[in-house]
Amino acid sequence: MATRRKFLRQSLMGGAAVFARVSGPAAGGPIVVSTWDFGKSANAGAWEVLGKGGRALDAVEQGVRIPEADPSIQTIGYGGLPDRDGRVTLDACIMDDRYNCGSVMCLEYIKHPISVARLVMEKTPHIILAGDGALQFALANGFHKENLLTDKSKKDYEEWLKTSHYSPEVNIENRLHDPMPGGATNHDTIGMLAMDEQGNLSGACTTSGLAYKMHGRVGDSPVIGAGLYVDNEVGAATATGVGEEVIRIVGSHLIVELMRQGLSPEAACREGIGRIIRRGPDRAKDIQVGFLALNKKGEYGAYCLQQGFTYAVRSEKEDRIYKGKSIY
Ligand code: GLY
What we know:
11 helices; alpha+beta; 13 strands; about 325 residues; about 35% helix
């Protein structure tokens, strides 16, 4: 028994030593990575915090608020395409470097669900608030009710109603809508991962979910472990695309665990995509899923099912958009 106790004590102390070792300053300086082309402007928002030595948690919240407020992005926040009942319902989550996390699901009328998710994390004993409860919590904490359905999204919805055909298609937003000014594409969820000067990681993920989904449908984005996961000992991962497939494999947590086993961020994302294919080859060939990951060394990588997924990187060395490698 004494030996077992000694073993446990040593194991626990070993764990603490690992944690202390990985919490040192970021070797390559701060870095932020985000899904899709619109991640570049979101990264610029995050960099205002990171570049001044601020905390990764503040950076990811500030960063993703930019696409949340942009009505030309019809897949996130204000201006998001509605569900099949014409209601804009938003999902978001946030996670810091100490396993603290907060999430809102199916939240209506609030432009910045990510900030509500952060308050759930910081001000409640819970992790997830959904629907009307999330709205009541937001209103009680100073958020204002707004109509999030813009004229453009209402018009697109009314057009969709003529057929009401529902089938999530590959890169659908790109095909249904004109490119955004500047040639950027109008896509899916924003997932953002950041490491600050102290070497600490945080992440945020926010979306209006699949266009014309059933009312009440929740995707992967606000599900900790699926749309986002952060483990400050190892790295962080996030997802975009058809959330049902990401939830099925608990994608972001899987990718962090694969990085723990020694895989690079890109190899871990590739394995995550491979698992989606193995779990449902028929489903996978017609949909898009993209994973993005960042490890404690500041290395990043991505992988997706279909061509077309992009991600944005901002650090002291670069500020650019990359194409994600794809299986198909
Ligand atoms: N990845 C966004 C969603 O499925 O809702």
